[in-house]
Amino acid sequence: MSRPVPKTPGASRGRTLGPGSTTEGRTAPPRTASRATYRLLTFVVASGLAIDAYVHWHLAPGFDGIRGAASPHISQGELFRLESVLALTAMLLVLRTHHRNGAVVAFLIAAGGLGAVLLYGHFDIGGFGPVPDMYEPIWYPEKTISAIAEAVAALGSLCLLWLASLNSNADS
User: Fold this and answer.
1) What is the distance between the alpha carbons of residues 75 and 61, in angstroms, rounded to a whole number?
2) pTM summary value
3) Are 129 and 70 contacting, i.e. CB atoms less than 8 angstroms apart?
4) How many of the other CB atoms lie within 10 Å of CB of 101?
5) Residue 47 class from Cβ within 10 Å (0-12 exposed, 13-18 middle, 19+ buried)?
6) N or C: which end of the chain has fewer CB within 10 A?
C-alpha cells in the first residue's frame, strides 16, 4: 500500500516530490524589486531633477542676453527656464505616479538636458532659427553640477524602468 505524497511549492505546476525525486528541474521564482529599492531610486531621480531645475533657474538671468537670430527671438535664459520647468514636472511625475510613464518622462528630460550640455560644451553647431548659438566649452561648477545631476537622474530613471519591467514579468 502506498502513502500519498505531500505536495511542495512546485506542486502548482503539477509536480510532487516522491521517493527518489529531486528539485533540480524546478526554476527559481522571478525576482521582484523591493519597495525600498524602488523608493531609493525614486528619491535619486527626483533629487537629480531638482538639482537640474534649480541650477537652470538660477543661471537663466545671466543668459537672457544670448538670443537667436530669427524671429521670434528665443534667449538661452528662456531655454534654461523651460528646462527647469520640465525637470520639475518630471520630478513631480516620478514622485506622485510611481508608474513607468513617469520614469520615461524623467529619462527623456534628464538625458535630453545632458545631451544638450555635452553637445554644446564640445561642438560649436551654431544657432538655428530662433534658437541661439549656445556653444560654451568652459566647464564651471554650476554647469558640471547640472550635468552630473542630469546623468544621475537619467541612469536612475533607466533603473526604475528596469525594475518596473522586472515586476511586470514577475506578475505574468
Assistant:
1) 10
2) 0.77
3) yes
4) 11
5) middle
6) N
Q: How far is CA 79 from CA 32, 50, 65, in A?
A: 40, 17, 12
What are the average pLDDT values for consecutive 10-residue runs of the chain, which has 172 residues? 53 50 50 79 97 97 86 90 97 91 96 96 89 92 97 97 78 60
Residue 19's CB is within 10 A of a number of other CB atoms, namely 7
Peptide bond into 72 cis (omega under 30): yes
pLDDT digits (tens, 9 = 90+) for 66-78: 888 778 889 999 9
Q: Rounded to whole angstroms, how far apart are CA atoms 144 and 129?
A: 27
Reading the block at residue 150, the C-alpha cell is: 542630469
Alpha helices in the chain (DSSP H): 35-59, 76-97, 100-122, 141-171
